[in-house]
Specification:
Layout (H helix, E strand, L loop, with lengths): L9 E3 L8 E5 L16 E8 L4 E9 L8 H8 L1
């Protein structure tokens, strides 16, 4: 299975203007956040380099702690 986007669980962040494929995973189950299942509110951001068969972790955050991914972090690492 390829680490591509799989709506409604994950989406490519396509408005970055980068050639790197950056994916946002929205449906993450977490046992520490009991009773929420895949609606835990956690977000995982990673970059997928298809040519190199490589995945690079960017960040993980809770949607209540911040609204969106850290685009400055993405731009500084993947320009």
């Amino acid at each position: 299975v390829l680490p591509n986007e799989r709506p409604p669980f994950s989406f490519e962040i396509s408005d970055l203007g980068l050639t790197t494929c950056v994916i946002k995973v929205k449906k993450i189950a977490c046992k520490s956040l009991k009773g929420r299942g895949i609606n835990s509110g956690l977000r995982l951001i990673y970059a997928h380099f298809k040519e190199d068969s490589k995945i690079v972790f960017v960040e993980i955050y809770h949607k209540n702690a911040k609204e969106n991914e850290d685009r400055n972090r993405i731009f500084s690492n993947f320009r």
